[in-house]
Write a structure and sequence with these properties.
Elements: E1 2-5, E2 8-10, E3 18-20, E4 29-38, E5 52-53, E6 57-61, E7 67-72, E8 78-82, E9 86-92, E10 107-111, E11 115-124
Parallel strand pairs: 1-8, 4-11
Antiparallel strand pairs: 2-3, 4-5, 4-8, 6-7, 6-9, 9-10
Amino acid sequence: MSLVLALCRCNPLAGPSCVDLPLDQTLEAGIRGTVTLGPTCPVEQPGEVCVEPYEVDLQIECPDGSDIVTIRSDADGEFEVRLPPGEYRIVPLQPDPTSPFPFASPVDVVVPADGFVEVQIDYDTGIR
Protein backbone atom coordinates (compact mmCIF):
# COMPACT_ATOMS: atom_id res chain seq x y z
CA MET A 1 0.00 0.00 0.00
CA SER A 2 1.22 3.45 -0.88
CA LEU A 3 1.55 5.46 2.34
CA VAL A 4 1.96 9.22 2.49
CA LEU A 5 2.03 11.52 5.49
CA ALA A 6 0.71 14.94 4.53
CA LEU A 7 2.84 17.89 5.57
CA CYS A 8 0.14 20.55 5.66
CA ARG A 9 -3.47 21.00 6.63
CA CYS A 10 -6.32 23.19 5.52
CA ASN A 11 -6.67 26.41 7.47
CA PRO A 12 -9.99 28.18 6.83
CA LEU A 13 -8.67 31.37 8.46
CA ALA A 14 -5.62 31.55 6.19
CA GLY A 15 -7.58 31.77 2.94
CA PRO A 16 -6.65 29.67 -0.08
CA SER A 17 -3.50 28.16 1.34
CA CYS A 18 -2.22 25.44 3.59
CA VAL A 19 -0.12 25.80 6.70
CA ASP A 20 2.86 23.60 7.44
CA LEU A 21 2.53 20.90 10.06
CA PRO A 22 5.36 19.08 11.75
CA LEU A 23 5.84 15.57 10.41
CA ASP A 24 3.80 13.49 12.86
CA GLN A 25 4.41 9.76 12.52
CA THR A 26 1.81 9.05 15.21
CA LEU A 27 -1.11 10.64 13.34
CA GLU A 28 -3.78 7.93 13.20
CA ALA A 29 -6.28 9.63 10.92
CA GLY A 30 -6.57 10.16 7.21
CA ILE A 31 -7.85 8.65 4.00
CA ARG A 32 -7.31 5.14 2.70
CA GLY A 33 -8.87 3.47 -0.24
CA THR A 34 -8.80 1.53 -3.44
CA VAL A 35 -8.70 2.63 -7.08
CA THR A 36 -10.16 0.48 -9.86
CA LEU A 37 -10.29 0.68 -13.65
CA GLY A 38 -13.20 -0.66 -15.64
CA PRO A 39 -14.76 -1.94 -17.64
CA THR A 40 -11.74 -3.60 -19.21
CA CYS A 41 -13.74 -5.90 -21.52
CA PRO A 42 -16.02 -4.76 -24.36
CA VAL A 43 -18.72 -7.27 -23.42
CA GLU A 44 -18.72 -8.76 -19.94
CA GLN A 45 -19.49 -12.48 -19.94
CA PRO A 46 -20.86 -14.42 -16.92
CA GLY A 47 -18.01 -15.16 -14.52
CA GLU A 48 -15.70 -12.65 -16.21
CA VAL A 49 -14.25 -9.80 -14.14
CA CYS A 50 -13.93 -6.61 -16.13
CA VAL A 51 -12.55 -4.38 -13.35
CA GLU A 52 -8.93 -4.30 -12.20
CA PRO A 53 -6.82 -2.42 -9.64
CA TYR A 54 -5.39 0.79 -11.01
CA GLU A 55 -2.08 2.53 -10.24
CA VAL A 56 -2.58 6.26 -10.72
CA ASP A 57 -1.96 9.68 -9.14
CA LEU A 58 -4.55 11.26 -6.85
CA GLN A 59 -4.42 14.86 -5.70
CA ILE A 60 -5.64 15.69 -2.19
CA GLU A 61 -7.03 19.22 -1.85
CA CYS A 62 -8.54 21.51 0.74
CA PRO A 63 -12.20 22.41 0.08
CA ASP A 64 -11.04 25.74 -1.39
CA GLY A 65 -9.09 23.88 -4.09
CA SER A 66 -5.59 24.42 -2.72
CA ASP A 67 -3.41 21.36 -3.28
CA ILE A 68 -2.08 19.55 -0.22
CA VAL A 69 -0.33 16.50 -1.64
CA THR A 70 -0.33 14.21 -4.66
CA ILE A 71 -0.22 10.50 -3.88
CA ARG A 72 -0.12 7.39 -6.04
CA SER A 73 -2.09 4.21 -5.60
CA ASP A 74 0.03 1.06 -5.71
CA ALA A 75 -0.17 -1.89 -8.13
CA ASP A 76 -3.06 -3.30 -6.05
CA GLY A 77 -4.90 0.01 -6.41
CA GLU A 78 -4.48 0.79 -2.70
CA PHE A 79 -3.43 4.08 -1.12
CA GLU A 80 -3.26 5.74 2.29
CA VAL A 81 -2.57 9.31 3.32
CA ARG A 82 -2.41 10.47 6.94
CA LEU A 83 -4.14 13.80 7.49
CA PRO A 84 -5.48 15.85 10.37
CA PRO A 85 -9.26 15.67 10.83
CA GLY A 86 -11.23 17.87 8.43
CA GLU A 87 -12.78 18.15 4.98
CA TYR A 88 -10.81 17.21 1.89
CA ARG A 89 -11.37 16.54 -1.80
CA ILE A 90 -9.70 13.68 -3.68
CA VAL A 91 -9.12 14.64 -7.32
CA PRO A 92 -8.28 11.63 -9.51
CA LEU A 93 -5.75 12.83 -12.09
CA GLN A 94 -5.92 12.00 -15.79
CA PRO A 95 -3.05 9.68 -16.74
CA ASP A 96 -3.13 11.17 -20.24
CA PRO A 97 -4.38 14.79 -20.22
CA THR A 98 -4.95 14.65 -23.99
CA SER A 99 -7.54 11.85 -23.66
CA PRO A 100 -10.93 11.99 -21.92
CA PHE A 101 -10.55 8.38 -20.69
CA PRO A 102 -9.96 6.87 -18.27
CA PHE A 103 -11.86 9.30 -16.09
CA ALA A 104 -12.89 9.43 -12.41
CA SER A 105 -14.91 12.06 -10.57
CA PRO A 106 -13.61 13.95 -7.53
CA VAL A 107 -14.67 12.62 -4.12
CA ASP A 108 -15.33 14.80 -1.08
CA VAL A 109 -14.44 13.20 2.26
CA VAL A 110 -14.42 14.09 5.93
CA VAL A 111 -11.51 12.70 7.91
CA PRO A 112 -12.69 11.81 11.44
CA ALA A 113 -10.90 12.88 14.60
CA ASP A 114 -9.61 9.38 15.23
CA GLY A 115 -9.44 6.98 12.32
CA PHE A 116 -9.46 6.69 8.58
CA VAL A 117 -12.23 7.31 6.10
CA GLU A 118 -12.41 4.54 3.46
CA VAL A 119 -13.03 5.51 -0.17
CA GLN A 120 -13.43 3.78 -3.52
CA ILE A 121 -12.26 5.61 -6.66
CA ASP A 122 -13.58 4.13 -9.91
CA TYR A 123 -11.96 5.12 -13.21
CA ASP A 124 -14.21 4.65 -16.24
CA THR A 125 -12.40 3.37 -19.34
CA GLY A 126 -15.19 4.42 -21.70
CA ILE A 127 -15.45 0.86 -23.07
CA ARG A 128 -19.07 -0.08 -23.74
